[in-house]
Design goal:
about 425 residues, alpha/beta, Aminopeptidase, Aminopeptidase i, Domain 2, nine-stranded mixed beta sheet, 20 strands, protease
Length: about 425
């Protein structure tokens, strides 16, 4: 796939995936179109050599794999979740002439960019039907239904000097001036738009606000891609396209886990059992399982901090990634990243073989270093692991920025591992 087609499909994937639930659904449909067979964790698996499969958990995490004779897998790991603001269970407040929603920040998001944006709502809703069966459905309102207005500078003379945001009181989106608004009726209307009339009772929901602005090219020569949720749908897309285009006789696996932004500790997160459970069912003989673990490599793909041209002092001068200069190899002496000299060398060797650039990133020694699913998975499974990422600006903002060259470059490197 050439870079232009790759990026055009990337933009569509980003727009169609406002939540981890939608991203996982979209990936599952793409996998089915590529010939992958869907598995159910609740049923007995009867895997056949030469086939390819995928399995989902919690509607928000997915694992796909080929199943050839060769057990030396290239595994690409990413995460489906992004920082956002989530709706509280009883969200409605009516005061001061408006109806507003109570929300809770998810992950380490930049709050200031959420002001004055056209916001919509998406996620999963659970309800009871007339047969007393609990059903789960994804909704996406799409229409801009809310906004978080800034306080005018006339009322905050320090706004351009210092601006802190109170997570409880300052970020409630306003929806309407109509005091007759009822949340349950709003949800029922969204279900009716999906053709669902049989709703006996509404139960729980997991809904998030998102910016309705579409992903787009930015720059004089379309140098950049601007979008919400680049961290980490960008890596999800790269891993997904890689496994969909690898030959069936090549051992490759792709895992996209939920909840990385809040520590990965859940049934569908990287600290949970999803990947290990899947691998053990693929190879239920312990000797086969251990041969696969020790013969495979995990490429943990998450975004990397590109050097900010207005704040260059935030980076180590010799390890400052540039946008459109290639994939970033992440290194940390204290094992916040799982890369070591052996896995780094393997990645460099493949990148050189396919003529794709790469860079190395080390956090300034006087600054804290984030972590990824890499060390978590390496610790749990004992698999050789490498942490890489695509250089990004404005990470964890409502709209992030990456290069239009880098994702396609990583895609070619990952395919190179199967040659």
């Amino acid at each position: 796939m050439n870079k232009q087609n790759f990026n055009e499909e990337l933009l569509g994937f980003l727009d169609a995936s406002p939540t981890p639930f939608h991203a996982t659904l979209n990936m599952s449909m793409m996998l089915e179109n590529a010939g992958f067979i869907k598995l159910d964790e609740r049923q007995k698996w009867k895997l056949k050599e030469g086939k390819k499969y995928f399995v989902m958990r919690n509607d928000s995490s997915v694992i796909a794999f080929t199943y050839p004779k060769d057990k030396n897998y290239t595994i690409v790991g990413a995460h489906t979740d992004s920082p956002n603001i989530k709706l509280k269970p009883k969200p409605v407040t009516k005061e001061h002439g408006v109806v507003k929603f109570g929300v809770e920040p998810y992950g380490g998001l930049l709050l200031n960019p959420w002001f004055d944006r056209d916001l919509s709502l998406a996620g999963r809703v659970s309800y009871l039907d007339s047969k007393n069966v609990i059903q789960h459905v994804l909704i996406n309102v799409k229409k801009a239904i809310a906004i978080i207005p800034s306080l005018a500078i006339h009322l905050d003379e320090n706004a351009n000097k210092e601006r802190t945001v109170n997570k409880q009181t300052d970020i409630s989106p306003i929806l309407t001036t109509n005091d007759d608004f009822e949340f349950d009726e709003f949800l029922k209307l969204q279900l009716e738009k999906l053709g669902i009339q049989d709703v006996k009772a509404l139960y729980a929901n997991e809904l998030s606000f998102y910016d309705t602005a579409n992903a787009s090219y930015v720059g004089l020569n379309d140098d950049f891609i601007a979008s919400a949720r680049l961290d980490n749908l960008l890596s999800c897309y790269v891993g997904l396209l890689s496994i969909c285009n690898v030959d069936d006789d090549k051992p490759m696996m792709f895992i996209a886990s939920d909840h990385e932004e809040v520590g990965s500790e859940s049934t569908s997160g990287a600290s949970g059992s999803f990947l290990e459970n899947t691998l053990r069912r693929m190879y239920n003989d312990y000797e086969d399982y251990m041969q696969m673990i020790r013969g495979s490599i995990l490429i943990s793909a998450d975004n990397a901090h590109a050097i900010h041209p207005n704040f260059p002092y935030k980076h180590d001068a010799n390890h400052a990634p540039h946008i459109n200069k290639g994939t970033v190899i992440k290194i940390n002496a204290n094992q916040r990243y799982a890369s070591n000299s052996t896995t780094i060398s393997r990645f460099m060797n493949v990148a050189n073989a396919v003529n794709e650039p790469y860079q190395e990133f080390v956090t300034r020694s006087d600054m804290g270093c984030g972590s990824t699913i890499g060390p978590l998975t390496a610790t749990r499974l004992g698999i050789d692991t490498l942490d890489v990422g695509l250089p990004t600006l404005a990470m964890h903002s409502i709209r992030e920025l990456c290069g239009s060259d880098d994702a396609h470059s990583l895609y070619k490197i990952i395919l190179g591992f199967s040659k």
